[in-house]
Amino acid sequence: MSSTIPMRVDSDLFDAAKSVGAVASRSAAQQISHWARIGRELEAAPNVGVRDIERVLAGEKPYDDLGEHDQAIVRASWDERVTERLASLDLAAEFTQAGRSWTEADEQGSVVVRGSTNIPSPAGPGPTDPDA
Length: 132
Fold this sequence. Notes:
132 residues
């Protein structure tokens, strides 16, 4: 029987493991172990081009040159990077700091304008009416 040791993981990873693990009747810890074993095997597999995958992720090689299996690994990495980037974005704070407004949908799907609405037009004042 193998022993376990405590480990810290990001809450996103834990939540994903909990959700995915439930489908396969695994606990979050069991799911993370499962993913770790898969990752270990992928890195050790001779038919997985780790260097090729790294080159695609670095933008040095076309994605289409990879096999289907390696493309799946690249997509998973891209997904992880996008998730991390989205988690770090706070566009509301950026727009507020810049004095800009933005629109978004509320829970009912209606368009709502947020932030400053007193923004001068980039073109300046509109044309004046010569007949006025």
